[in-house]
Amino acid sequence: MRVLVTGGAGFIGSHLCERLVAGGAEVVAVDNFDPFYDPAAKRRNLEGLQESPRFRLLEHDIADARAVDEALGPAEVDVVVHLAALAGVRPSLERPLDYLRTNVEGTGAMLELARRRGVRAFVFGSSSSVYGDSAPVPFTETDPVAHPISPYAASKRSGELICHTYAHLYGLATVCLRFFTVYGPRQRPDLAIRKFARLMAAGEEIPVFGDGTTERDYTYVDDIVQGIEGAIRYSLAHPGAFEVFNLGESRTVTLAELVDLLAAELGVEPRIRRLPPQPGDVRRTFARVEKARSLIGYAPSVPIEEGIRRFADWFRSEGEG
Fold first, then answer.
1. Which residues form the catalytic set?
2. Taking burial as the number of CB atoms within 10 A of a residue's CB, which of 85, 168, 240, 309 is the most buried?
């Protein structure tokens, strides 16, 4: 099996590439090494793969489908796993047009590339943010998702709609995966857990938006990768299908609880700076995952306590704590 992974040098993408190559697949990663955070960190994510004959890296912008297509050459692709995106709710408030270009136009470009090349299946990395702030909890795939409250959330919902259109019109088997607050080794430096860990280790204040009662369904990266592998198998076995799956741990943790867990693992006393709630943030995310368990064999197995331990071990190994 040959898999094209967009955003392959990123946090989730690099873990997925490693798992696929270890399982015998041929993997082509596409990444433009956007300077949103240090490109050198993303290159380090791929160090363990560069010597593998089953791995290839293409440095291109996903919105330029022609360049990606030419770089691929005659090689056949069975599955596209589309993870490349501008991520994060708060930065999207400041750069909405950039988010729309990369996340909407880029998704359309990769779907069109898949259609033109006769790719069998397309797996799209969506987000729990599409549920907005009004869906009842736990979130179910059939809930209405018509009211995103940030440009990032709107761009991800737009991507899902484009995926549905390609499945409907062209018979491209498409699976959209709504990721719930992914964390673990190689996490982006702007995301809460790594950002908090860095500040705690330096003895600096942690900026906490709101009163600490907001809740998230934190999902360890290995569980997410296991879910993506299940989605690949499902999409290949169901030509022309379109499905949406939640990938979460199906458990909520308050921001205050997260800070305490992380501080305990790092052996520090956190210093907290209270800030007003941030526009675009939702109060709670909570995934119902029965559909993913049933249809793609999703089986999250790393609770937050164990995941934070693993993250802290990696954080210290990186010399950051």
1. 152
2. 85
